[in-house]
């Protein structure tokens, strides 16, 4: 189903928005899904097309998945694991793959996908494109409201759409500047629908069920209900699911969607119609102005915490899609970078709120029943990347669904650890779904990677590093400790080196040799880097919480036996323990997993110059090509190396029509939202870095952005940073100390920084050129400016 795609006759778009106003806007309706604009409240999502004859809102609810609760563990796994390990350590990779594909892969081997509810379709009479002028659609990121405006037959029509967190409904408001001029019909349709009905005199409903999947019956039932609240005129619903609005001055359409999903391990049950009607009853009791106010207040409470301000050039007045095309052609448009940053924050707010499912491969928005890669949680990079901006971009609450996911996969993964590996703790491999499948998926080449859960669990430690919240750490520490206990039980000793290794494993999605088993290995560099971070976090967490000293001792002992990072003959950081990199089949492979230690880890810093140089050589050899998310990771890699211009070049590569859709969704291709989120994280890395035990200001500022201001960025150890710069140099920084910890601030553009608090100088020390240290008090604000 597609909206009216014919372009209205445009006296074009009217005035362009102010560059200071974060708005995506277009002078025509969306001709495809990737030009529609997203709204969401974490649980409910819609892609709004903005058609004039027919408007389509493609709908999602975050618990509508195929399949149902299911144990994916292969019963033959435990009996074949030892032989699989022997074959891998012996270098018999093809034989190992055959065995793993038969006995160690999950059953079924593919996990079920996230699915679309369908669409709300609004049809308007006498709305042919020849009758429409002065068309404009926009998404205001500051208010979270989508607007369509146009003239039709001499009447100005306006539609506002938003997804409300406080009221848990989608709201569509239709108005006109002539009384009685609002006429439309509304209907719900979708590929999973089983029937329509009219549950009220001004309401229609669609019901259906998630699909079957590889022998697992579809268990999730859903209801979507739209109710009309008219001002003047009439609204009537017919039993076949058609809602007709006639002669209204204005109408508010309220859309409620619920499923009978209960949890990852309980069978769904019950008709969700009553839950929908409850949502609608509450929302319909509020006037539209109150619904809008409640939504915007909730939205702005998060959105306005942080911002990036960059100068506007003439290009900033162009429609958004044209700005992307012009940016690719070298147009100077720094304000597009600020808009992209704001949009990434908007998307995370819209698809990940406390109490919802986490952001999946497409965040929340998916128009298919079998989308690319299932719209799952791919945890060999993509899900982690989704949440990289949560802390530095000041959206800590948006992290909460990931922590809930971790608690659930720790429970599911304990069964996988026990039945597959004979180990304690818990494990998850490279993919997770709504039913928290933690067994290997998709095939040995991709799925035989036991370290995904460990990487994901490190979000718990990162949260502590940013917030210093001991209560949150204590509450979540069993998940972190369980991830470590699995590896204490499952690591094996390589008889040739004496090193502790993961086996069998892979370096995600990359092969060291040709052949079906060419990805299989023992102890790849990424695994060792992740485990060093995991073991360090658990050891330090035990000390902070004053518990489990025996666990701290065990993880420290295991850490000492992991293989170190090694530099190969070509000067590259080795991806595997053996120096196979130069002969690997894909020299420009999109995954650069062994640079985890550079980003998001902090094992490769200025304190390790040889490893830093080797990381740089690795990035040069891999080149600047890649998928959308791969470019986003490289933006972060080069920022960590202090190479702001190279990092910015990769953002310009990403902001091209090939990698960025008209609606600014990142394209793998196809669409994956991780590239949007990874780029936001990379932009924060240009401005503030805090991974290496100090707070560094403007560590990788691109030359293309000589002037600007950033507000409300968060740094580890509980600092909030606002800073401005001009001529490529820091002018002033404002630091709020939330925890009262000592500050060590690095800025390379001056020998040191002067520090004041409430107008009075603060004694500071300069342990080395460019570094300033000073004590802080919790809640105090410090102003810093370049000394001299």
Automatic annotation (TrEMBL):
This protein is called Alpha-L-fucosidase 2
User: Residue limits of the Glycosyl hydrolase family 95 N-terminal domain?
Assistant: 24-263
* One Gene Ontology MF term: alpha-L-fucosidase activity
In this protein, which residues make up the domain named Alpha fucosidase A-like C-terminal? Answer: 689-783
Q: What is the lineage of its organism?
A: Bacteria, Bacillati, Actinomycetota, Actinomycetes, Kitasatosporales
Q: Which GO terms describe its biological process?
A: carbohydrate metabolic process
Q: Output the Pfam families linked to this UniProt entry.
A: Glyco_hyd_65N_2 (PF14498), Glyco_hydro_95_C (PF21307), Glyco_hydro_95_cat (PF22124)
Where is each Glycosyl hydrolase family 95 catalytic domain found?
Answer: 288-687
Q: Which InterPro entries does this one have?
A: 6-hairpin_glycosidase_sf, 6hp_glycosidase-like_sf, AFCA-like_C, Alpha-L-fucosidase, GH95_cat, GH95_N_dom, Glyco_hydro_b
Q: Which organism is it from?
A: Streptomyces aidingensis
Going by the entry's taxonomy, the superkingdom of the source organism is recorded as Bacteria
């Amino acid at each position: 189903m597609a909206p009216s795609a014919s372009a209205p006759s445009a006296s074009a778009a009217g005035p362009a928005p102010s560059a200071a106003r974060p708005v995506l806007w277009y002078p025509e309706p969306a001709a495809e899904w990737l030009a529609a604009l997203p709204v969401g409240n974490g649980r409910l999502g819609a892609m709004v097309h903005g058609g004039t004859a027919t408007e389509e809102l493609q709908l999602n609810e975050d618990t509508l998945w195929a399949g149902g609760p299911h144990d994916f563990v292969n019963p033959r796994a435990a009996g074949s694991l030892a032989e699989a390990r022997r074959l891998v350590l012996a270098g018999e990779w093809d034989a190992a793959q055959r065995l793993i594909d038969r006995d160690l892969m999950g059953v079924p081997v593919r996990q079920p996908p996230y699915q679309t509810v369908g669409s709300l379709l609004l049809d308007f009479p006498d709305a042919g494109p020849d009758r429409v002028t002065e068309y404009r659609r926009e998404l205001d990121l500051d208010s979270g409201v989508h607007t369509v405006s146009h003239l039709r037959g001499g009447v100005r029509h306006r539609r506002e759409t938003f997804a409300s967190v406080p009221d848990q409904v989608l709201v569509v408001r239709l108005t006109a500047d002539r009384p009685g001029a609002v006429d439309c019909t509304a209907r719900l349709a979708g590929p999973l629908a089983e029937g329509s009905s009219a549950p009220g005199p001004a309401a229609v409903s669609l019901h259906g069920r998630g699909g079957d999947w590889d022998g697992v019956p579809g268990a999730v039932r859903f209801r979507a209900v739209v109710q009309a609240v008219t001002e003047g005129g009439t609204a009537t619903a017919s039993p076949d699911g058609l809602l007709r609005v006639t002669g209204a001055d204005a109408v508010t359409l309220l859309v409620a969607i619920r499923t009978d999903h209960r949890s990852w391990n309980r069978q769904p049950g019950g008709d969700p119609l009553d839950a929908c009607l409850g949502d609608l009853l509450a929302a319909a009791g509020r006037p539209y102005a109150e619904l809008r106010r409640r939504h915007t207040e909730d939205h702005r409470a998060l959105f306005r915490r942080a911002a990036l301000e960059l100068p506007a050039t003439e290009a900033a007045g162009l429609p958004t899609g044209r700005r992307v095309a012009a940016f690719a052609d070298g147009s100077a448009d720094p304000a597009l970078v600020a808009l992209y940053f704001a949009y990434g924050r908007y998307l995370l707010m819209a698809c990940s709120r406390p109490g919802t499912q986490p952001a999946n491969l497409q965040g929340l928005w998916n128009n298919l029943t079998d989308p690319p890669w299932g719209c799952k949680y791919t945890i060999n990079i993509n899900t982690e990347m989704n949440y990289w901006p949560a802390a530095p971009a000041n959206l800590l609450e948006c992290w909460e669904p990931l922590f809930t996911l971790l608690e659930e996969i720790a429970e599911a993964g304990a069964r996988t650890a026990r039945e597959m590996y004979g180990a304690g703790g818990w494990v998850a491999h490279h993919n997770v779904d709504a039913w928290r499948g933690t067994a290997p998926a998709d095939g040995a080449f991709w799925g035989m990677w036991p370290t995904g859960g460990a990487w994901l669990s490190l979000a718990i430690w990162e949260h502590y590093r940013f917030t210093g919240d001991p209560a949150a750490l204590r509450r979540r520490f069993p998940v972190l400790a369980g991830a470590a206990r699995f590896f204490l039980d499952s690591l094996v000793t390589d008889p040739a080196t004496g090193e502790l290794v993961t086996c069998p494993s892979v370096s995600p999605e990359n092969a060291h040799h040709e052949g079906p088993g060419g990805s299989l290995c023992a102890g790849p560099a990424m695994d060792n880097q992740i485990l060093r971070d995991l073991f360090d976090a658990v050891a330090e967490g035990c000390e902070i919480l004053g518990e489990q000293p025996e666990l701290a001792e065990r993880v420290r002992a295991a850490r000492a036996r992991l293989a170190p990072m090694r530099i190969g003959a070509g000067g590259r950081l080795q991806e595997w323990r053996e120096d196979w990199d130069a002969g690997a089949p894909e020299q420009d492979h999109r995954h650069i997993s062994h640079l985890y230690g550079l980003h998001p880890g902090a094992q490769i810093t200025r304190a390790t110059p040889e490893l830093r140089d080797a990381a740089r050589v690795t990035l040069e050899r891999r080149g600047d090509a890649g998928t959308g998310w791969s470019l986003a990771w490289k933006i972060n890699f080069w920022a960590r190396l202090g190479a702001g211009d190279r990092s910015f070049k990769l953002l310009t590569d990403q902001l091209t029509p090939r990698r960025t859709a008209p609606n600014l969704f990142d394209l793998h291709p196809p669409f994956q939202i991780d590239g949007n989120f990874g780029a936001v994280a990379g932009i924060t890395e240009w401005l503030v870095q805090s991974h290496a035990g100090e707070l560094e200001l403007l560590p990788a500022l691109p030359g293309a952005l000589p002037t600007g201001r950033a507000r409300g960025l968060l740094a580890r150890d509980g600092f909030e940073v606002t800073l401005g710069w001009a001529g490529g140099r820091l002018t002033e920084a404002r630091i709020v100390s939330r925890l009262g910890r000592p500050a060590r601030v690095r800025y390379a553009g001056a020998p040191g920084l002067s520090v004041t608090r409430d107008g009075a100088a603060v004694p500071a020390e300069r342990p080395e050129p460019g570094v300033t240290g000073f004590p802080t008090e919790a809640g105090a604000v410090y102003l810093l400016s370049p000394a001299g």
